[in-house]
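User: Here's a structure from my thesis project, written as structure tokens. My advisor, Dr. K., wants to see whether a designed sequence matches the one we expressed. Can you design one independently, without my sequence as a hint?
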């Protein structure tokens, strides 16, 4: 049964770093331009966001009114205000609902929004309830691939357009226990396939910073909702960059944790497929880490899930001297749209400002081997997930061509091909272990192209044809293939004001180190707070 009022509606000259080869290390120098909204001071050898920038943010919010002031607050800060009684959960809910009413029609990020009166009643009830975590009383829309008891879960598919979830998924149940108030869903591509959040049930999600262009995917609705100020934190998931690509394109943060840190549903096979994971998104790294601490932790029904100790108390760290390996375009193997490489390479100067040492890394393994492994293991996993739908002719007729192609590719692979793909994955794991003996983190762009027009995915990049619907996102598979932790951080805006991001990738289980670098990055740049989208 739907919660009261639940309904589901939708509308169908900066420096480039040169190569540093074996044994030749070089500490990068240089500064990014400092705007009137962003001042720096040095603390313990690293750049941090100076208080005048935050004061400027507060002044703008106050000029826009008290509800926009709440919208612009960090989630942890808002939680402290709730603890002190400076604001009520009802006021927070009303601010979110007002913002959704004002801008969601332009963006289409949040779907299946519940009745406002019912949500305000829940918010009033929360005012007298215990606050078990920072999430208590915060409105949260959940990615439309995850089950929330009583809410629709279409997965962007006509097959499931009327489906209502009976129970919460594991991570969602943890968020509910932490006090989150679930208000609806965030938009996705059909079945989460493809980094472009368009589907036949709810239509497409457009980029708040680039109207008429993609917000990425599959967590595109979540990223757009955060960027537009409709949400403070969001859940997401990531197989092939689905937390990272939309974060980079929407000027927010998305974290793919080490595989197993946030366990998936303990149903069906719990051993074989280790490509997709849940993770958090936010407009700053502290809020993101706080949500990770809620979502993460071992579940005995998931034998490969990991224990988790809270990371938020350990987030701030001096990152001076940490070694960053820049993989760029993998020696030319990954075609890049004009300007992407130059923009991302220039953004690396921020690491130097943070006191890090940056080197360009030669391709550590043939990109073709990683792609072959990925293509087979992904198709194999998707055939297992969607094969039963494909086998039913009536349901297959409602599936998008890309989903049908995935299943048919997976059904066609042989046992020998799967074994070879797994061997290549194992080889890559060994290579990464050697790399992380030399580097604290590896860095790549979050995408190979700028946000593109809403009509379709890119079929070529820099004159090179894309042979699959997802080849244009090849740059994300080095982290995905072996379950490495990877944080997407905003890297500013390029030609025409289009956003781009960087992936900070760490050793398996070294999530904290990645997040510490991300927190230092945020303190040095503050991009989501500096660049609020103009939505009228």
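Assistant: Designed independently from the structure alone:
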């Amino acid at each position: 049964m739907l919660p009261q009022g639940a309904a589901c509606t939708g509308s169908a000259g900066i420096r480039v770093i040169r190569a540093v080869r074996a044994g030749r290390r070089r500490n990068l120098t240089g500064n990014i331009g400092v705007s009137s909204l962003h001042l720096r001071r040095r603390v313990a050898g690293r750049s941090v966001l100076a208080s005048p920038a935050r004061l400027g943010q507060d002044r703008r919010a106050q000029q826009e009114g008290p509800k926009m002031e709440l919208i612009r607050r960090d989630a942890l800060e808002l939680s402290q205000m709730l603890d002190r009684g400076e604001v009520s959960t009802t006021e927070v809910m009303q601010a979110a609902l007002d913002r959704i009413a004002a801008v969601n029609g332009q963006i289409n990020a949040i779907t299946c929004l519940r009745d406002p009166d019912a949500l305000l009643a829940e918010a009033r009830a929360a005012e007298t309830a215990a606050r078990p975590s920072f999430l208590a009383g915060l409105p949260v829309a959940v990615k439309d691939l995850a089950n929330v008891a009583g809410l629709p879960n279409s997965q962007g598919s006509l097959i499931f357009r009327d489906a209502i979830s009976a129970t919460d998924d594991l991570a969602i149940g943890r968020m509910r226990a932490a006090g989150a108030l679930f208000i609806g869903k965030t938009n996705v591509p059909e079945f989460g396939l493809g980094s472009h959040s368009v589907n036949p049930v709810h239509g497409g999600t457009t980029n708040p910073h680039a109207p008429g262009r993609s917000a990425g995917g599959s967590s595109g609705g979540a990223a757009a909702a955060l960027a537009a100020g409709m949400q403070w934190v969001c859940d997401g998931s990531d197989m092939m960059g689905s937390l990272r690509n939309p974060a980079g394109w929407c000027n927010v943060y998305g974290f793919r944790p080490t595989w197993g840190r946030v366990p998936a549903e303990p149903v069906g096979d719990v051993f074989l497929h280790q490509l997709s994971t849940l993770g958090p998104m936010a407009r700053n790294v502290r809020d993101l880490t706080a949500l990770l601490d809620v979502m993460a932790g071992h579940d005995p029904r998931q034998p490969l899930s990991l224990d988790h100790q809270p990371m938020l108390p350990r987030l701030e760290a001096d990152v001076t001297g940490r070694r960053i390996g820049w993989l760029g375009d993998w020696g030319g193997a990954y075609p890049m749209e004009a300007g992407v490489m130059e923009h991302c390479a220039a953004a690396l100067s921020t690491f130097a400002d943070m006191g890090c040492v940056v080197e360009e890394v030669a391709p550590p393994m043939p990109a073709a081997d990683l792609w072959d492994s990925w293509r087979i293991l992904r198709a194999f996993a998707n055939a297992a997930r969607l094969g039963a739908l494909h086998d039913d002719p009536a349901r297959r007729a409602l599936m998008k061509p890309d989903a049908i192609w995935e299943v048919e590719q997976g059904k066609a692979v042989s046992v020998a091909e799967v074994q070879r793909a797994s061997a290549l994955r194992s080889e890559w794991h060994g290579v990464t272990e050697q790399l992380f003996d030399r580097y604290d983190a590896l860095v790549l762009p979050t995408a190979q192209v700028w946000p593109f027009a809403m009509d379709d995915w890119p079929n070529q990049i820099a004159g090179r044809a894309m042979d699959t619907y997802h080849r244009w996102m090849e740059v994300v598979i080095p982290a995905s293939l072996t379950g490495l932790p990877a944080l997407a951080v905003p890297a500013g805006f390029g030609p025409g004001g289009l956003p781009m991001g960087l992936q900070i990738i760490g050793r398996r289980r070294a999530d904290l180190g990645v997040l510490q670098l991300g927190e230092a990055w945020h303190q040095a740049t503050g991009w989501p707070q500096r660049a609020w989208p103009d939505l009228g």
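When you compare it with your expressed construct, this may help: The chain is about 35% helix and 15% strand.
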